[in-house]
Amino acid sequence: MVRQAAAAAHASSLAAELQHSRGQLVTAREEERRRLRRDLHDGLGPSLGAVVLRIDTARNLAGAGRAEDADRVLRQARDDVAAALADVRRLVHDLRPPALDDLGLAAAVRQQAERLLAPGTVVTVDAGPGADDLPAAVEVAAYRIASEALTNVARHARATTCRIELARDRDGSLVVTVTDDGAGIAPDAPAGVGLVSLRERAAELGGRCSVTCPPDGGTVVRAVLPVDGGGSGERTGA
Ligand SMILES: Nc1ncnc2c1ncn2[C@@H]1O[C@H](COP(=O)(O)OP(=O)(O)O)[C@@H](O)[C@H]1O
Ligand SMILES: [Mg+2]
């Protein structure tokens, strides 16, 4: 009786946890949408509106024979468009890092490592077969998880080497491992947003992420990201 009651209580607390983490994912997505909407509406919209006005002004000036003034206004319009273009690039980068398309996952992760880690840190990136043939969502999650882990290595580990592995599991899942030989996580280290978001990004895809400190030192971040469609590494569209 007692054991059954305990099992039931455990099951219901697991269900509550699951419900809670689903709720968090929905909230995170809604917040992202709101931010995108705000960026588009308050940033890009008015910028392009201003360009339209400047072009009208320039046409009027040109029509009145004031070529130099028209040219000045057109130059301003040109600068406005260039700024709007930079905004679009930033928005697009937030949605999907362009390095993934330009370089592929392994090289994009290597670039992040070189960008984030101190020049003295020796970086190795090992990509197994099938690590470059992934659904877009898995690729983005892997990139962001690796980036977050690398940010922590740079900030906290004081490591001399850092190894990143991208491998396909037997069931087709992508396994992302970031290992450093640094200080390890102090038992009293304050839990931060970074470690939580590693888990959330993995959970979002039905995967998991563990952060461990082996007895011989350093820190290992290991994320397992399921790939729908299994071992073939078939692409489900970008
Ligand atoms: N690779 C690492 N090496 C050493 N300590 C780490 C590492 N990763 C995380 N930590 C410790 O865990 C803490 C929590 O990390 P995180 O959640 O990313 O928050 P933040 O980086 O903002 O402090 C860090 O403050 C740090 O003390
Ligand atoms: Mg961090």
TrEMBL record:
Residues 137-229 form the Histidine kinase/HSP90-like ATPase domain. GO terms for molecular function: kinase activity. Its EC number is 2.7.13.3. It catalyses: ATP + protein L-histidine = ADP + protein N-phospho-L-histidine. Keywords: 4Fe-4S, ATP-binding, Cytoplasm, Iron, Iron-sulfur, Kinase, Metal-binding, Nucleotide-binding, Phosphoprotein, Transferase, Two-component regulatory system. Its cofactor is [4Fe-4S] cluster. It holds the Pfam family HATPase_c. It is an enzyme of class 2 (transferase). It is found in: Cytoplasm. SMART domains: HATPase_c. It comes from the Bacteria. CDD domains: HATPase_UhpB-NarQ-NarX-like. Member of the two-component regulatory system NreB/NreC involved in the control of dissimilatory nitrate/nitrite reduction in response to oxygen. NreB functions as a direct oxygen sensor histidine kinase which is autophosphorylated, in the absence of oxygen, probably at the conserved histidine residue, and transfers its phosphate group probably to a conserved aspartate residue of NreC. NreB/NreC activates the expression of the nitrate (narGHJI) and nitrite (nir) reductase operons, as well as the putative nitrate transporter gene narT. This is Oxygen sensor histidine kinase NreB. It comes from Blastococcus brunescens.
